[in-house]
Amino acid sequence: MHRYFLTISVAILCVCASSKARAQSLGVESHDSRTRAIDRLTRTPLTDPLADHSIPLIHDDESQSEFITRFEYERLRGDFEELSSAIENLRRASQVAETRLTAHPQPMAEEIGWGYVEPQCVCNRVPGWERARSPCWMSQGRLQRMTTQIGQAGDMDLYLGLNTVGRPQYLQQSNVFDTVGPNNVVPGALEPGIQTPFGQFLILADFGGAIEVYMDVFIASRPHEDLLQADEGFMLFRQLPGPFAPIFDFVHIKAGGFEMDFGDAHYRRSNNADVQRNPLIGNYVIDPREVEIGAEFFNPPGSLPINWLFGVGVGNTGDFQAHRGWQFHGKLYAETCGGFRPSVSFFRADHAGNPTGFPNTGSKSDLFRSNRSGGPYAAVLGASNAPGQILPGNGQDVSAVQVDLSWFRDTLELYGHFGMFLDADTNGSAPGTPTESWLYYTGEGIYRFTPYMYAAARYSGASALHLVSALDNTQDVKSGGVVHRFQIGGGYWLHDMILAKLEYVYQFYDSFTPDGSQVSGVDVWRNPTFNGVLMEISFTF
């Protein structure tokens, strides 16, 4: 409140200074006379102001009256009305600011053991270019992504969000054949066009920062262009009352259906219409992402020099089949290295005790094998749900490790990761134990010319070590095949909610042999390629 009164005082001083200048220009002899006149206008009735050409101002401490001209009186009245309006506007602005400060504390630093300074999450209505890289943009909660509060009841704040995206594209492909698939499709030439627009609806309830309840729904997506599809739906507990309260000094809990925190790339990728944290349009060649049904446990942010996370679940559907396995994942990461963020993640699932679940009934992991949100490219390489993406294995006996490194400094941002994937039994409970294994890797850079304009480049690739045999699916063969994807482009913020991007992409397959299985749904031994230009316009609130 002291800032409110200070602002009003400054406004009054400015108006009085302006009045003094005008008085001097009109030949008024005394500044004190004018100041007393303004005071009397606020507290003393005027004597018949329309009857005379001069206005008497009676002073309690003086025996005589002072007079000002009609012209000067009109000036004084205008100044008074201007001052009253300014004070009212300041009062209203102060009330709005106090409400925002109460609901969303401003950025602050809180020192927590070992000399680590934890950045506090901010949820103010900020421009998208700040929100996309806010202090907590790689955190387990969703509150920092929400900007529009639509209601309040007690200690519950209710937020609403909407993402939309549209993409014109002009992509061309060559050497694309499918001689193994059920229809033996040979994709032809592609014409320029516009993709189906996608959308995403988000809603979050925040209970005083202690509990978050979040859900989002795909209004349209690449796999389901004319249907609604649920994505995440979870509760995040940072505190509970009663005897459980001390536990939350050491651990926070997320439970429900949530995006698995495996690696850091899922924070940077496009997820259906949620695209503004991705500096480019396409994602990575191998793009691990799964909505896990289960729970994650992790330390309160900043409470340790190295943060930890552990999760357990059953996959992305309620699976109660016999011999279904459990899925486990974990992560260690740090944000104490002056602009560096290193992390290492692991994943383990064994569903090989029953059928593969693809396409038969059975259990499977979809972290690598499927992609609920689909891919940003359309129509290329057989027009699957995620065109151009490698979906390794069958989600059966899966082990994976990924190491990530991010670096931020002023206008420059660098990121890279290296991962290893193994499905040790792609047949599940069927005969044989064929193996599929890959190495995958990426490097990208972003340079920001201004806060709202940037350029970006990315290389992502994958090397096949073992593939299922094309002649006998109970066996595997060694492979030296490599997939390369190059992306270059940039973005420009047309509005703090609207981001426009442009990208050129070139992807090709090299060194695969016919004795191995297909990759990306096509005959990779024919060295298929695609390339071209895309534009993307996205809106988020």
Textual characterization of the structure:
- This protein is mainly beta and about 550 residues long.
- The chain has 2 domains: about 1-95, no CATH class; about 165-200 and about 260-540, Porin, CATH 2.40.160.
- It is built from 4 helices and 24 strands.
- A hairpin with an 8-residue loop joins strand 1 and strand 2 (about 65-70).
- The radius of gyration is 32 Å and the shape is globular.
Strand order of the largest sheet: 6-9-10-11-12-13-14-15-16-17-18-19-20-22-23-24
Indicate how many domains the architecture comprises.
2
Structural class determined from secondary elements: mainly beta
User: What is the level-2 CATH architecture name of the largest domain?
Assistant: Beta Barrel
Proportion in helices: 10-25%
β-strand amount? 35-45%
Radius of gyration: 32 Å
In N-to-C order, the SSE pattern is HHEEHEEHEEEEEEEEEEEEEEEEEEEE
* Morphology: globular
CATH topology (fold) name of the largest domain: Porin
Number of helices: 4
Low-confidence stretches: 1-35, 37-65, 99-120
Sheet with the most strands?
16 strands, antiparallel, barrel
Average pLDDT figure: 82
Number of strands: 24
Distance between the amino and carboxyl termini: 30 Å
SSE blueprint and pairings:
Layout: H1 2-25, H2 31-43, E1 54-57, E2 66-69, H3 70-103, E3 109-112, E4 116-119, H4 128-131, E5 148-153, E6 156-166, E7 168-174, E8 193-194, E9 198-207, E10 211-220, E11 229-237, E12 252-259, E13 291-298, E14 307-313, E15 327-333, E16 340-350, E17 397-409, E18 412-423, E19 436-450, E20 453-468, E21 476-478, E22 482-495, E23 498-510, E24 529-540
Antiparallel strand pairs: 1-2, 3-4, 5-6, 6-9, 6-24, 7-8, 7-24, 9-10, 10-11, 11-12, 12-13, 13-14, 14-15, 15-16, 16-17, 17-18, 18-19, 19-20, 20-21, 20-22, 22-23, 23-24
Helix pairs in contact: 1-3
